[in-house]
């Protein structure tokens, strides 16, 4: 952990000079932003809002599992990396879902990869005996809360640019170390991976911070942090293990 703290301090020191002036991104000329379907921002999509997306409207009744006239996050179709199904991870989950009910039971998990089965209890965030989108969203929410708390070094309820970069840098280093340990434990030879340079890490952290800092006051509140969901709420927002 001493190495991680040294890395964190180095990142903070470099960041103070590298990002003295905040940069804001502006949309490219001629590029139109995608319309927001959830117009009132209440977290659900009603039939009127769905009408703005013909494909979604056509499947509204099918997706509305509880027939309440609204589509919650767990009912809406999700996309990851520009493809349906969540990429390779989504494909693996679908393969395990033998009865095609949209969730993974412990029996289905046990029939798959041994490592996945061993992590079942940890992944089952709501402890209902199944793995589905609700568990993933709950885990992400908890991880984001832990990240914010860990990053808020002075406990003032908001993140400075340095605080965010320190937590981000330490998290990235730990994730690489944990990956190497898992590969070694499995008796495999780790593939050569390019580690981002310190400058690249600082640049990425700075861009993410600027996206979150909605009012451009140089700090990120918890509300701004949750609203922006940097890096899809997954990468870049995992808490450090202390």
Topology:
Blueprint: H1 2-18, E1 45-46, H2 47-50, H3 54-58, H4 60-63, E2 70-71, E3 79-80, E4 83-84, H5 87-96, E5 104-105, H6 106-110, H7 114-118, H8 120-123, E6 130-131, H9 133-151, E7 158-160, H10 161-185, H11 198-212, E8 219-221, H12 222-228
Helix pairs in contact: 1-10, 1-11, 9-10, 10-11
What are the main properties of this structure?
two-stranded antiparallel ribbon, 242 residues, Recoverin, domain 1, mainly alpha, 2 domains, 8 strands
Which regions are unreliable across 5 or more consecutive residues at pLDDT < 50?
1-7, 15-34, 79-86, 230-242
Distance between the termini: 9 Å
Question: How many discrete domains?
Answer: 2
What are the secondary-structure elements, in order, as H or E? HEHHHEEEHEHHHEHEHHEH
Based on CA atoms alone, the radius of gyration comes out at: 20 Å
Write down how many β-strands occur, each being a DSSP E stretch of 2 or more residues.
8
Instruction: Specify the biggest β-sheet.
Output: 2 strands, antiparallel
Secondary-structure content class? mainly alpha
The dominant shape is: flat
In CATH, what is the class of the largest domain? Mainly Alpha
The CATH superfamily of the largest domain turns out to be: EF-hand
The helical percent reads 40-55%
Q: What is the CATH topology assignment of the largest domain?
A: Recoverin, domain 1
> Which CATH architecture of the largest domain would you pick?
Orthogonal Bundle
Instruction: Please state how the strands of the largest beta sheet are arranged side by side.
Output: 1-2
Instruction: Give the integer mean of the pLDDT values.
Output: 75
Q: Count of DSSP helices?
A: 12
Task: Bin the strand percentage.
Answer: 5-15%
